[in-house]
Amino acid sequence: MAKIYDRAYFDKWYRHPDHAVASPAELRRKVAMVVGQAEYYLGRAVRSVLDVGCGEGTWRAPLRALRPGIHYQGLDASEYAVMRYGTRRNIGLARFGQLEQLRFDHRFDLIVCTDVLHYLKPAELRAGLMGISDMLEGVAFLEVFTSRDGVDGDMDGFHARAPSWYLKAFGDVGLLPCGSHCYLGPRLDRRIAALERAQMPPR
């Protein structure tokens, strides 16, 4: 049976004190870290963000608090999230795999995808990554957990893959790891020194 990302799902995993795995303060720190990484490598302020699998668009407010003029575009497969927040928070309806064909009229300085990839089947994941690489001007924040991590939260449909599996999938589309779930797009390849690349031995 397919998972349903309705209001009850978001209430449980994002707001209920017994299940929510991140606090608003933690989210603000994470957003600040990611924006700092992107701006360091871009050499300027982040102007545009694509948030893939954004749910209710929780990244939008802390992003706009840091950079008030930022352009935020969210995408999610939840009909509930798009119906409720689509207009107010600029969230469109799309599955991850649709990024293979979906394009906008500009590339994005920052692409965010948190807590999504480890629930996807390989074919959809690889298809969507091609779109992320093509649409990325700067840095992608791809927060994904592996077979080597202690994972809290929703385990329904979780794929416990090896870190090397994801590094290969990211590398196949030209995404270069630079630490803390951040990956440089192919257009920034020349801006990264050898020891800035966050590599992990296979296991």
Could you please describe the fold and organization of this structure?
The chain is of the alpha/beta class. About 35% of the residues lie in helices and about 20% in strands. The protein is built from six helices and seven strands; from the N terminus they run H-H-E-H-E-H-E-E-H-E-H-E-E. It has helices at about 5-15, 25-40, 60-65, 80-90, 120-135, 165-170, and strands at about 50, 70-75, 90-95, 110-115, 135-145, 175-180, 180-185. It has a seven-stranded mixed β-sheet, with helices on both faces. The longest helix has 19 residues, at about 25-40. It is globular, with a radius of gyration of 16 Å. The mean pLDDT is about 90.
Task: For this entry, give a set of tags.
203 residues, alpha/beta, 7-stranded mixed sheet, 6 helices, 7 strands
Order of helices and strands: HHEHEHEEHEHEE
Taking strands numbered 1, 2, ... along the chain, how are they ordered across the largest sheet?
Answer: 3-2-1-4-5-7-6
Structural class: alpha/beta
The largest sheet, given as strand count, sense and whether it forms a barrel, is: 7 strands, mixed
Beta fraction: 15-25%
- Total count of helical runs of at least 4 residues: 6
Helix content estimate? 25-40%
End-to-end span in angstroms? 32 Å
Instruction: From the alpha carbons, calculate the radius of gyration and give it in angstroms.
Output: 16 Å
Poorly predicted spans = none
Total beta-strand segments: 7
User: Which word captures the global form?
Assistant: globular
Overall pLDDT level: 89
